[in-house]
Amino acid sequence: MVSSPFRRPGDKKASGGYYHPHYGADVIKVMLGEHKVSTHPEVMLVTTLGSCVAACVRDPVALVGGMNHFLLPDVPENSPGGVNDAARYGSVAMEFLINNVLSQGARRNRLQIKVFGGAKVIDSSYDVGAQNAAFVLDYIEREGLELVGQDLGGTQARRVHFYPVTGRAMRKLLRPEAMNETIHHELSFRSKLRAQRIEGDVELFGD
After folding, report:
1. Are 59 and 101 in contact (CB under 8 A)?
2. For residue 145, what is the DSSP state?
3. In sequence order, what are the residues at sequence separation of 6 or more whose Cβ sits closer than 8 angstroms to the Cβ of residue 143?
4. At what angle do helices 90-103 and 128-142 cross, to 10 degrees?
5. What is the pLDDT of residues 153-190, one digit of tens each?
6. Contacts (Cβ under 8 Å, ≥6 apart) of 68
């Protein structure tokens, strides 16, 4: 849960957040495998996506929302990684985010979801971006949730800005020269997930 606003330019917190005078908002970065939730109208969640997908979830009555950022659709059987690494998979990341939003007073039947990412940024026969996009759309339909916006696919990385209380979302496509860091980050995490083993229980679903 994101804590109180920063208020002044230059203010920072341990979460890595900072006040951005151009947006007049407290910017919180959502890194790969993370999710962040807030009830503060001043908070703006930001992430950068290549083949990854981010879901932005909001309850317009409870005025709470959040964003996740996942790398691959499902946790493979006997997959590498720990419980924290499991959050890099969509099947876990969606439940972590939704359960956290529900714990702050949201109702599942009121949730509104916008999804972003899933680009083909790596020249490969395996289009992980398309797999991520297909997963998140199938998940939303299967769970009976309301999809109110999507920006998926293509060949360019994206930067997404989301205000979790108002539901406002902004997307900027990155130029090719700005994509290298995003691609490198995703590839390094895929390598890491192959090198470790998942242990512990991951609690899925919530009322």
Report:
1. yes
2. P
3. none
4. 40
5. 999 999 999 999 999 999 999 877 666 666 666 666 65
6. 30, 34, 35, 54, 55, 87, 93, 94, 96, 97
For residue 7, give both structure tokens: 């208020």
Catalytic center residues: 52
By DSSP bridging, strand 43-49 and strand 25-29 are: parallel
Alpha carbon distance 195, 21 (integer Å): 41
Domains, the chain:
18-195 (3.30.1330.200)
Q: Which residues of 118-145 are buried (b: 16+ CB within 10 A; e: fewer)?
A: bbbbbeeeebbbebbbebbbebbeeeeb
Contact in structure between 45 and 66 (CB atoms under 8 Å): yes
What CA–CA distance (Å, rounded) separates 50 from 123? 12
List, for residues 31-46, the tens digit of each pLDDT value.
Answer: 999 999 999 999 999 9
What's at 109, amino acid-wise?
N
Residue by residue, DSSP assigns 59-120 as ETTTTEEEEE-BSBSS--TT-SS-HHHHTTBHHHHHHHHHHHHHHTT--GGG-EEEEEE---
The model's pTM: 0.80
Is the C-alpha dihedral spanning 104, 108, 110, 113 positive or negative? positive
CA distance 122 to 188: 13
